[in-house]
Specification:
The structure holds three protein chains of three kinds.
Chain A lengths: L2 H30 L7 H19 L2 H25 L4 H19 L25 H5 L4 H19 L1 H11 L1 H6 L4 H27 L11 H11 L4 H23 L6 H5 L1 H17 L20
Chain B lengths: L2 E12 L2 E12 L3 E5 L6 H8 L7 E6 L2 E3 L4 H7 L1 E4 L11 H7 L10 H11 L15 H13 L5 E5 L7 H16 L3 E6 L2 H7 L2 E6 L2 E6 L6 H9 L16 E10 L9 E9 L3 E5 L6 H9 L9 E3 L2 E2 L5 H6 L2 E4 L14 H5 L10 E2 L2 E2 L1 H14 L16 H13 L5 E5 L7 H16 L3 E5 L3 H7 L2 E6 L2 E2 L9 H9 L5
Helix pairs in contact in B: 3-5, 12-13, 13-14
Chain C lengths: L1 E5 L5 H26 L5 H14 L1 H26 L7 H18 L8 H27 L3 H21 L34 H17 L2 H11 L1 H6 L4 H28 L10 H11 L4 H25 L4 H17 L1 H4 E5 L5
Antiparallel strand pairs in C: 1-2
Helix pairs in contact in C: 1-13, 2-3, 2-12, 3-7, 3-8, 3-10, 3-11, 3-12, 4-5, 4-6, 4-10, 4-11, 5-6, 5-10, 7-8, 7-12, 11-12, 11-13, 12-13
Classes of the chains: A mainly alpha, B alpha/beta, C mainly alpha.
């Protein structure tokens, strides 16, 4: 295999895996706080749309990414309000969020389906990217790719190296006890949900600002759901998200290259791969764990917290 | 001697219910002060007000002679008030160290904290390893974690909510040593309990609540246990006694029953064996978390066991599910009321159907006859004096005592040949507990067998003729109570041999 | 300050009032959106087209019923599973698989006209959906894999599978390479119950099924098993119910009904297997089930309401050139408001003053 093909594959994998990484690391923090938000797909698509719209009007990538984060947070705030203050069922509310997000994005984005924008391109880091082999491999990605890795690190650092992170994990483990010793369960959860929204928003925007220069209805194509699967796959451990996301990125790229190589299988079957891989990986994870209870599952995941005091 | 905390005329209502009605109490510094009362007497409400998690409707408090009105537990802790909760506020998946840090304001993660924990644990003789995960700890060890967490705040007042209810006799003795040392060091202790013997042993003062009102403040040593009990309950209790003990042939036996727990925090059961006869009340004592839940699941039939490990009336029943066992006249009352013995969000009528042998005719070929169901639930409610406006009420709306009476009643109206009951009076007020014990005794007098699994040693001692101890998943032989019975039980409870 | 206090008994008044409140709030919000978005069109006439016209025009009304039938059938199955706490949210995939399986039978006998053909197709459709949902049940029981993710992933797979089938074995050999199947002949098509419209027997089947489900939920221990398993799993074991069976029942029933709806769509309004078979019914039925508060008879009504939004949405699309996604927004909002208003059933809202 020649060098440039190899690097192209690496870049392809990174581009395919980064949206998942963003969305999954956000959801990981949310689930660590004991909240299950099934609305990732909805938040991603809204992020994808807003990023695209702002980019097409301002041509400013910074504003576009910020808008995507704000969009994700805005619709996450609906979920936060309903589940944390009106105590609605998290599964139902998350589904509603996805359905609403898909509908809203399709409605609001109807004027943009014909447009194209300038993609956010890779920025090779000066000097470092000139190092032979390592340079193109490590230092010439899109800035958002670095941001994704950094966010994973940041979430890990927050969860395991700060008091607030400890409190957030404690709330996910036992919200009644956390409340009893005086921690504000709802405030932590609302913040976590908003963070999850922002991350899903960037993840979505990566699709419309980096992967392809267009906007299309349903362009997230289930990535929000795959991100949810990744969180389970990662056993709620931040760094495993990277591994999982790259695995999926690899499968996606494999599928695209296989189609290019004229392998004698219909395109549809190859396109099924990422979805089937999600299932296979979840199953294999369980086979590895055998009968052991998974200690990392946040105990309060999906449970409603209501304090009478 | 001065007062550390003075509480005056506190009132707190929930709707029509006055949880605290004009309650006052004063705690001297360096004293151990008992707060006595039944469930629902208003102890928890009062304590939550002192600890800042509730605000009173009226009344005021003074802390070391200054006005004190905490808005949150944080403020209470700032003032030097610490609390050990009855249902521990611990986080199972986190380490001891993390758990302690979580309860301490202003302590970050970067300090080298383990050493300090070890220092405190040595100072007060509370053995603990900071790096262990709390989920792996015994109940007694968990309580030590809670206490150290409180002590590290250097409190002036330590509130302890029913601290001994889950401890072995030895652990209780150790705890008392710690508490006395604390009081001597200048920390006042508010000791909440309904165990009068303990209160008379270590408390210098007692405040008694009943129905949200203050009954009396007194010096506990000046009153007999019986007097204190009657102040607490407000009426006289029936003496429990069996009128007819006729032990018949063997009705139920457990033989070589083992189980590997599927929960990482669970206990493995090893070669459990037990025989019980008609007309007998058999008790299994032991501290919580020694395999009681795992054993109960097998006895109920929620998890099947090898066919011959359980035998009822000559029939091997290991593989039968709970419904099939009920058809044979075995009935069960599990420990956990909400979510196990009853569905919280369903009406009492619907909850009747959890236990529905064909003989009740509540169902025929699985089609439900709701009128029959209502008749049965009315019988239970009337016979066992369950306080509820109707059988349409949700199970979760009943008080613990009332729901327990309903659950015990639901099984008793079937006239079980064998009743297996776990923690029959856990969290139940003394009056209801008395009724439940009476009903169990009457059932045994009629010739049925009863198996009681309980952490409450007093309960076991007062009801059972045959006592076993469950420790670390192993069941002892029946303890010979004729000489030094209690001593043997204590020893068995901490895993010793007799 | 506002505070929520749990009720001791669910409020019966609120059980009836909260959906009305949710509907009113949705209508108000929709109104506001229209006022902002539609500058030059009178909002009242859009409202009329959206919500009233489908009810008074007989053709539109028949279309409303055509769309309501699959929503009812899928919604019924989902409402049973959701009660048990089994979140089958990939009914869309089971619907597609049912459609493929049933159609495949019809297409295999494309030259056979017989009375047994339609029943055979129906059975194949149900089995197709059951099989597909059964995968999720198997994985959940054997490997504790979350059924939400499995059913969803399988939905994407099903849609791709449909496309592969229509370009491969099920493509009409004389169809100029269009990805469509042969058109079904009469004995492979559902009987029409309203002459001159597309309304087929599926509606009657849905109504019958709804009453069967009502009996099962209300009068039979099956319903208790489902409800108790969903509400308190340990209590279900205490009662002697097998939790694995509950998972199987929930997924097989909801999958089977989704498959039935898929076959009815192919052998009904479509008359052939096309890439247009998936119409989001499987997802919308989730809303239908929740709006009905998982009540089997309620599903009939909520399906009609949602079908109204479908037909109304199509009408405004045609008449005012508005996007049909407005339907989805409307449905999403309705579900949000509905979930939010339901808090009034379980909790009392009390306002109180904070003291200093």
């Amino acid at each position: 295999m020649n060098e440039s093909l190899f690097i192209n594959i690496i870049i392809g994998i990174s581009i395919a895996s980064v949206p998942l990484m963003f969305a999954a690391i956000g959801e990981l923090l949310v689930e660590r706080s004991g909240v299950l938000n099934l609305g990732v797909e909805g938040m991603m698509i809204v992020g994808a749309l807003l990023g695209f719209v702002v980019m097409s009007h301002t041509q400013n990538p910074y504003l576009a990414v910020l808008a995507a984060m704000a969009g994700g947070m805005a619709i996450a705030s609906i979920f936060a309000f309903l589940t944390q203050f009106l105590l609605t069922n998290q599964v139902a509310t998350g589904l509603a969020l996805t359905l609403f997000g898909l509908g809203f994005a399709a409605f609001a984005g109807r004027g943009y389906t014909e447009e194209t924008i300038q993609l956010i391109t890779a920025v090779p880091i000066p000097y470092l990217s000139d190092i032979p082999y390592l340079g193109p491999l490590l230092f010439s990605f899109n800035p958002l790719v670095y941001l994704a890795f950094f966010m994973v690190y940041l979430v890990w650092w927050f969860l395991f190296r700060t008091k607030q992170g400890l409190i957030l994990r404690a709330i996910g483990d036992n919200h009644d006890a956390a409340h009893a010793i005086g921690h504000n369960v709802v405030r932590y959860r609302v913040m976590a949900i908003l963070f999850g929204g922002a991350m899903a928003g960037i993840g979505g925007a990566f699709l419309s600002l980096v992967q392809v220069p267009i906007w299309g209805e349903g362009m997230t194509a289930g990535r929000g759901w795959i991100a949810l699967g990744l969180v389970v796959f990662a056993s709620w451990q931040p760094f495993r998200i990277i591994f999982g996301a790259i695995l999926f990125g690899g499968i996606t790229i494999l599928q695209i290259h296989a189609q290019g190589l004229n392998i004698n299988v219909s395109a549809q079957y190859l396109s099924m791969l990422p979805y089937l891989a999600t299932i296979v990986i979840l199953v294999s994870l369980r086979m590895r764990l055998k009968n052991k209870t998974n200690r990392t599952v946040p105990n309060c995941l999906g449970r409603i917290f209501h304090s009478t005091t | 001697m001065k007062y550390q905390l003075e509480v005056s005329n506190i009132t707190k209502s929930y709707g029509d219910l006055k949880a605290n009605d004009n309650v006052s109490l004063s705690i001297k510094d360096s004293s151990i002060h008992a707060l006595l009362g039944e469930n629902g007497a208003g102890k928890s409400t009062l304590v939550k007000i002192i600890y800042g998690s509730l605000t009173p409707d009226s009344g005021e408090m003074k802390w070391a002679n200054n006005k004190y009105s905490p808005k949150s537990p944080f403020q209470a802790r700032e003032n030097g008030i610490a609390m050990v909760f009855q249902h521990f506020s611990l986080f199972e998946s986190l380490t001891v160290e993390d758990n302690i840090i979580l309860g301490l304001d202003g302590v970050g993660l970067n300090e080298n904290f383990s050493e300090q924990i070890i220092k405190y644990s040595k100072q007060y003789g509370l053995d603990i390893n900071p790096q262990q995960v709390v989920g792996d700890l015994s109940v007694g060890a968990r309580q030590r974690v809670e206490i150290i967490r409180c002590l590290m705040q250097n409190p002036k007042l330590l509130i302890m909510d029913e601290p001994t209810s889950v401890l072995t006799p030895q652990e209780v003795a150790d705890l008392f040593v710690t508490l006395k040392k604390l009081a001597a060091d200048g920390c006042a202790i508010l000791y909440i309990s309904h165990k009068l013997e303990e209160v008379r042993e270590i408390c210098s003062e007692a405040t008694i609540l009943r129905g949200g009102k203050l009954v009396q403040s007194c010096i506990p040593q000046e009153h007999s246990q019986k007097e204190l009990a009657e102040m607490m309950i407000g009426k006289k209790l029936t003496e429990l006694a069996r009128t007819n003990i006729t032990i018949g042939e063997t009705i139920f036996s457990i033989d070589n029953l083992s189980r590997k727990s599927d929960d990482i925090y669970g206990v493995n059961l090893k070669n459990i064996a037990l025989k019980m006869s008609k007309g007998s009340i058999v008790g299994i004592a032991g501290v919580a978390g020694n395999g009681q839940d795992e054993l109960m699941e097998l006895l109920i039939g929620e998890i099947p066991s090898p066919k011959a490990t359980l035998n009822f009336n000559g029939q091997d029943i290991g593989l039968l599910n709970s419904h099939e066992r009920r058809q044979l006249s075995m009935f069960f009352v599990p420990e956990e009321r909400l979510g196990h013995g009853a569905v919280p969000d369903m009406s009492l009528d619907e909850n009747m159907l959890l236990s529905r042998p064909d003989s009740t005719e509540m169902t025929s070929r699985d089609v439900i006859d709701w009128e029959k169901v209502a008749v049965h639930s009315k019988t239970v409610i009337d016979t066992f004096d369950v306080q509820t406006p109707s059988s349409k009420m949700l199970a979760k709306s009943l008080s613990g005592g009332n729901l327990q009476k309903f659950m015990v009643g639901r099984e008793l109206i079937q006239n079980p040949e064998l009743l297996i009951v776990a923690q029959p009076t856990w969290g139940v007020d003394a009056g209801s507990a008395n009724n439940i014990h009476q009903a169990l005794i009457e059932l045994a007098d009629k010739g049925s067998a009863i198996l009681i699994i309980s952490q409450d040693l007093d309960e076991i001692l007062s009801l059972c003729e045959q006592i076993h101890v469950l420790s670390e998943g192993q069941l002892s032989d029946a303890v010979d109570m004729k000489s030094k019975g209690l001593e043997k039980i204590s020893q068995l409870m901490v895993g010793g041999k007799v | 300050m506002i505070k929520l206090i749990p009720r001791v008994e669910n409020s019966t008044v609120m059980v009836l009032l909260s959906p009305l409140l949710a509907l009113t709030l949705t209508a108000l919000s929709a109104y506001l959106i229209f006022v902002f978005v539609l500058v030059d069109i009178p909002v009242s006439s859009v409202f009329f087209t959206l919500f009233v016209e489908p009810l008074i025009d007989s053709y539109y009304f028949s279309e409303l019923l055509v769309k309501a039938a699959p929503l009812m059938i899928i919604g019924l199955g989902l409402s049973i599973g959701f009660r048990a706490g089994i979140w089958n949210i990939g009914a869309e995939g089971q619907y597609v698989m049912g459609g493929i399986a049933g159609s495949a039978v019809g297409l295999y006998f494309y030259n056979v006209e017989a009375l047994w053909l339609l029943p055979l197709m129906t059975i194949a459709g149900i089995l197709g959906g059951m099989f597909y949902a059964g995968i999720a049940a198997f994985l959940r029981i054997k490997y504790q894999v979350n059924e939400i993710l499995v059913t969803l992933m399988l939905t994407y797979v099903a849609v791709l599978f449909l496309s592969a089938m229509l370009q491969g074995p099920l493509r009409n050999p004389s169809g100029f390479n269009f990805p469509e199947s042969r058109i079904f002949h009469d004995s492979a098509m559902l009987p029409i119950i309203w002459e001159g419209t597309r309304l087929h027997i599926g509606l009657i089947v849905a109504i019958i099924l709804s009453f069967v489900a009502w009996f099962g939920i209300k009068k039979h221990m099956f319903g208790m098993q489902i409800k108790i398993s969903g509400s308190a799993p340990r209590a279900a074991k205490f009662a002697g119910f097998d939790d694995n069976k509950t998972v199987w029942y929930s997924l097989l029933i909801s999958g089977g009904l989704a498959g039935l709806a898929g076959l009815f769509e192919a052998a009904g309004p479509a008359g052939q297997l096309t890439p247009g078979l998936p119409q989001f019914y499987g997802f919308t039925a989730i809303i239908v089930a929740f709006l009905a508060r998982l009540h089997p008879v309620g599903v009939l009504f909520s399906a009609l309401l949602i079908a109204l939004s479908y037909v109304g949405g199509e009408n405004v699309q045609i008449e005012y050139n508005l996007p049909s996604s407005i339907t989805q927004i409307f449905q999403g909002m309705l579900l949000f408001y509905f979930l939010a208003c339901d808090i009034l059933i379980k909790y009392k809202v009390v306002s109180f003053k904070t003291k200093n």
